[in-house]
Amino acid sequence: MTLAHLTTKLRKMPITYDLETDIRFLQGIEKKEIEDVKGLILQNILTDEQIAEAIKAPVEIVRRVRKDIEGEEPSTPSNL
Does pTM top 0.90 for this prediction? Predict the structure, then answer.
C-alpha cells in the first residue's frame, strides 16, 4: 500500500464521537441543571420534590443546591 492509498482510505473513514460521554459536555449539563435548580429555589414557590420533578433531576441535587444557597449571602444579581 502506498501513502496516497492510505490517505484516501483514511479520508473515507467516518469519525464518530459520542457527545453524551464527553466530560465537558456533561459538566455543562450539570452546570445548567444547577442554575435551573437555583433559579427555582430562589422563586420560593415549589418544594424540593416539585423542583426535582420539574427538571427531571434527583431531589438530592435540589437539596444540595438549597444547602449551598442557605450558606450564601442574600441573593443579588451579581451572585445568581
Answer: no
